[in-house]
Here is the input.
Amino acid sequence: MRMSHFVVKEAIQPALTETTRDGVIRELVASLESAGRVLKSDLVDVVEAVLRRERLGTTGIGRGIAIPHTRHAAVGQLVAAVGLSAAGVPFESLDGEPVHVFFLLVSPQDQPANHLRALEHVVGALRDDAFIQKLRACTTQDEVWAVISGGTGA
Amino acid sequence: MNEAGRYRRKVVVANPSGLHMRPAAAFQQLASRFSSSITVSNGTNRANGKSAMELILLVALPGTELTVEVEGEDAAAALDPLVAVLADPGEGYG
Here is the structure.
């Protein structure tokens, strides 16, 4: 499984406009809806599910990265939205630092093993400082997509 | 209990979603309270127990046998609660 297999290019937000945890989660789920990967009728429910999960414990895993996620019947296969925030968003991260890079994952309800492998791919890529630096330097959807689909971390 | 030393124990991942982000984060948060070095291994893959990222990269599916090793001043006190996180069936997905 490559990241480019589940990251939705049209759901990449190279400059998030929201500045709060809940706002960013709404913005990223909305981008999946705009990209046609989540139905409008499921939008509110998916946002709520991601927020509910976030309240159980932060997905801000440290080093400026957060991986908000949920399992939801709204999707038949794993999809991910990506968001970048130059200013950083407070996220109650494990290391207390604001988050600059978001990977929001929505996985089907019946595939926990696939979810774990997707998480492994995202975390494995994001552990690489060079990959993060390249990602954070991006200013357009095309640039982010190029970093995700090529080179390290793909 | 505050016995220094080196301890090792095997534990089977009980969470039905495996060692996903929530138990990994919980493990990191607990492990970080101890001064001992804490390592979790899945076969030949080893993770620093104080890094949720490394723990996720073990890709420990439900039923996987992991080995927890703790070494340092508070090793004896650390072992039981750390093993308990991995043995906890949890509340499912997250």
User: Anything to note?
Assistant: Chain A is about 40% helix and 25% strand. Residues 112-126 of chain A form the longest helix (15 residues). Strands of chain A lie at 7-13, 60-62, 65-66, 69-71, 79-89, 99-107.
